[in-house]
Amino acid sequence: MKIQPADKRELLKAAMGKIPCDLAVTNVRYVNVFTGEVYPATVFVHQGFVVHVEDQDPAKELSLAKQVIDGENHFLIPGFIDAHIHIESSMMTPRNFARAVIPRGTTTVVTDPHEITNVFGEEAVHYMHDAGLDLPMRQFIDIPSCVPAVPGLENAGAVIDAAAVDRLAKLPNVIGLAEVMDFIGVVEGDDRMVDIIEAAEKNGLYIQGHMPGVENRRMFSAYLIGGPICCHETRDTWEAVAKLRTGIHVDARESSITKNIADIMAGVRDHTFHDHLCFCTDDRESDDILYVGHMDEVVRQAVKNGMDGINAVKCATLNTAREIHMDNLGAVAPGYTADMLLVDNLSDFNVKSVFYMGQLVAKDGKLVADIQDKPAEIESRYSMNVPNLTLEDFRLKAPEGCGDKVKVNVLTYYSEELAITRAVTEEIPVKNGFVDISSDPGLCYAMIINRYGTGGRAFDLVRNFGLMKGADGSTVSHDCHNLCIVFKDAESGYAVYKALVECGGGMACADGNEITGLLRLQVGGLMSTLRPEQMAEQSDAMKKALNALGLPQKNPLLRIATMALPVIPEAKFSDLGLVDVMAKKLIPIFPQ
Amino acid sequence: MKIQPADKRELLKAAMGKIPCDLAVTNVRYVNVFTGEVYPATVFVHQGFVVHVEDQDPAKELSLAKQVIDGENHFLIPGFIDAHIHIESSMMTPRNFARAVIPRGTTTVVTDPHEITNVFGEEAVHYMHDAGLDLPMRQFIDIPSCVPAVPGLENAGAVIDAAAVDRLAKLPNVIGLAEVMDFIGVVEGDDRMVDIIEAAEKNGLYIQGHMPGVENRRMFSAYLIGGPICCHETRDTWEAVAKLRTGIHVDARESSITKNIADIMAGVRDHTFHDHLCFCTDDRESDDILYVGHMDEVVRQAVKNGMDGINAVKCATLNTAREIHMDNLGAVAPGYTADMLLVDNLSDFNVKSVFYMGQLVAKDGKLVADIQDKPAEIESRYSMNVPNLTLEDFRLKAPEGCGDKVKVNVLTYYSEELAITRAVTEEIPVKNGFVDISSDPGLCYAMIINRYGTGGRAFDLVRNFGLMKGADGSTVSHDCHNLCIVFKDAESGYAVYKALVECGGGMACADGNEITGLLRLQVGGLMSTLRPEQMAEQSDAMKKALNALGLPQKNPLLRIATMALPVIPEAKFSDLGLVDVMAKKLIPIFPQ
Hints:
The structure is a homodimer.
Chain A: H1 8-15, E1 21-31, E2 38-46, E3 49-54, E4 65-70, E5 75-78, E6 80-85, H2 94-101, E7 106-111, H3 114-120, H4 122-131, E8 138-143, H5 162-168, E9 174-180, H6 183-187, H7 191-202, E10 206-209, H8 217-226, E11 230-231, H9 237-246, E12 249-253, H10 261-268, E13 277-280, H11 286-291, H12 295-304, H13 309-315, H14 318-323, E14 340-343, E15 351-356, E16 359-363, E17 366-367, E18 405-413, E19 421-431, E20 434-435, E21 443-449, E22 457-463, E23 471-474, E24 483-487, H15 490-503, E25 506-511, E26 514-520, H16 532-548, H17 557-561, E27 571-574, E28 577-580, E29 585-587
Parallel strand pairs in A: 1-4, 1-5, 6-7, 7-8, 8-9, 9-10, 11-12, 12-13, 18-22
Antiparallel strand pairs in A: 1-2, 2-3, 5-14, 14-15, 15-16, 16-17, 18-19, 19-20, 21-22, 21-24, 23-24, 23-25, 25-26, 27-28, 28-29
Helix pairs in contact in A: 3-4, 5-7, 9-10
């Protein structure tokens, strides 16, 4: 696929020097991602596209350009492409996300609107697609493939089936089918996944993969045969090598919580070819983007971990363009979109200037392009269709006649840092007919409340969550984003419930009746309409409020957000109850 | 695009080891074109596709295969892909061509049936397409883009326009638009080329380029913008570097006459990345294929000229698959077609075994697959629709009243080896009203006779052709393939004319009335139905016959075949007269 110019003949004339072109960027050290060379050049741009790169006599024919920009001997590289991101994870809308990442040199992202689609279905894909148009960056959409992620074991707000994929594939900026998380379904040839993948392939979409924690290399082979061509769930050194050897594109990830670059580089930096190595951020929060970086930070980490700078640039640009089947992205070359960066060097990658479609859109870390807000009805649609609960509902009733103790399948974190959980049967005290955790500082209550009108609700205990008092609640709760509350006492839990129902979703914490932190995410309970700086500030305040309740994690927001993610082993929690992830079945809270 | 398996679910089962697979090739040094590594492995194949490559414990699970082949510690590499070839240049039909190249390790070619299409039009594309089906190799078709090459300056047997491209694009094995020779038309945005390219792109075809002898780098840029992505007309070192820098895929060519690998390698072997470097043979004759090689020879030459063997393999396989937009060709990996070779080492590339779609099709240089003939009506269709000429017509009449000398624009070869020609005005003796070359050993008469029923005919003189006596005639005469005869005396010229009209086309030479060589090419005057060995033998005999008439070239067959090629600078010859290639106009034979 190609980004089409408005008038190819005008580009031809500009290339041939028959008409003046819009822009020349001169006095740069041009990084050629086709040959790996760096040399002085002038890049000529017209109507958004590169029309010529003059490397023989870079100062020649500058008069052919209406505007000449002095590149100050910086390195000129293609704009970064993020191979896989969920914009919702920034908790910003697509347009505010753009305001944050453009100054970091990201000119294209491939976004999977999986989160908001779990809330609003197909409409959400339209919203994210349209919100991403007319921006000084490119936001491609991959259609969420697994909504819900695990049918039958959780209830989301929508279902995306093959027919929906077929419909959504017609949107102009849709280019792929997003991370096919049901890898078991793919390798076993389950009808649901086969149908969805076929619908996507029929529409010319590429298939994005997602295969975490698999050790059986025959599954890598089968997954590739099944359709997905890439995977951003690569954590271990051996895994990176094995996936690349198999032919899978490895989208090496550096998200806000999951840092995979170091381990991946350890295995692959000495390979002769890196054609199938790309970079992505997956989930990156506003403060992380603003104060650490986006794709610039990923490239920096790659170089820090032993990759040559030019090669790192290629992984972040041309390799990714190929992976996503875009034929004129990822290089600064004739006929390619004029998405390009000036950076001071090829190890720190301080982004001096960002050009998108030939326009200077950011300079010295500041956005200079104008981004208009584009309000949409969905941004103010109330999404908290939860049952009406009372304080009493936040007390966990023990089974009839169980005496002063009861066996409970407790959702147990491996540690206070790791997100992996399992179910462990424990004996828990019962007081006045209710399960009582007051004597055990490591235990909390946990409730998931369906917010899509089913009335469903599950109630269990959780160990090693980290909360020492009060309650932590969130409507950001992957992947179904039901309302999830972890609490030490019923009053706190109920307070959080009320606060989130009232504000239309988001994150809240309480100590007794007092709300000690509130982050309003009124767009589907997932995103705010705040600008990046305000977003980062409020997000930081929320983190501090959670830390004050005992959560020890550096990023305590994500603790509750992944508790209900039933594609991550071993046991998870859903609005239907406790889920055995590998066996794909529900486990009773109170075992017989 | 992908080659689709018959039943993906069966492949998945075989990949997972749930059912036995058809074949395992074990005990090999597996060359991984994704990473550049070489390691011991076993390749598992099912229903024509690779389902798994076991690199951890290659001897494991061999019992899961119905057949196990011992690779004898040879290197296992993907089958070679020829990025650009005209099968007609082998003078063999597609099926005989297959018999010749498969033992050399070529499992895929991208063929441009440009020659036969100039004779029979769209029907010829269908013929070549269908003849290439059900073979133990893959013959992709690129639709000829320039039939005729230079409209208005020559008459071919057909015209391929945008509507024809649109129709032909529907044939299953059509993947591209073939070498867009009218590069001036492309860079100037001429309607004809723009329409044809748009028709191709609309049908998802890639655009193959052809841009010889251009020094203006802005033209490289404009050409890439215009649509073509690659070029096999790269002769000089600087040109290879410049095209690769621009982003053009360089299909480095090693044809029977034009050897470009050495010059290209001199410029590019030290590049860090070679993603856009591919290999092709363009035109390769039967004896060359049989006794020297096909793609194996190209790869050998690349290594001889300083390229690493693994990299050369990648250029001849994966890089080309990408260029032609085929997503599961060019590597031995799960989901990819099981096209693979066993070679003894990575410098000589002696091909020990050839597998196509998982079948052993050649071993130790011998075809073991069964190739059935597939006779088609077109193969015996008479194509010599020429005017009825007499001996008198082979005498060149001087203009009325010119006296004993006349100025003639002589088509002049730069040397007896080079194919480049220009028009040079000379004063030539006139005897009895006829132009007389008898006293000048460097001159010959040259006639081109339209063979598509227009009755057109042009008559001129040619210098430095190399013929010392008799006549040389051919219906292989790029690109229109009109009947072309070069002769020292009318009798010889007429004898050749009669012989070729009688046999239905081909090549002939005569000394006076005696036919001293005849190569019958009854398939459109371009191809024989002979088997490769017989073809090579007859072709060799014809070469010897031409050498006996004075032609000094190592391959004298091609001398006449390129005399009328009006896309090669500076002046050429057509059925309409003498052509100024750069100015795109006719020049009078007798200047005023």
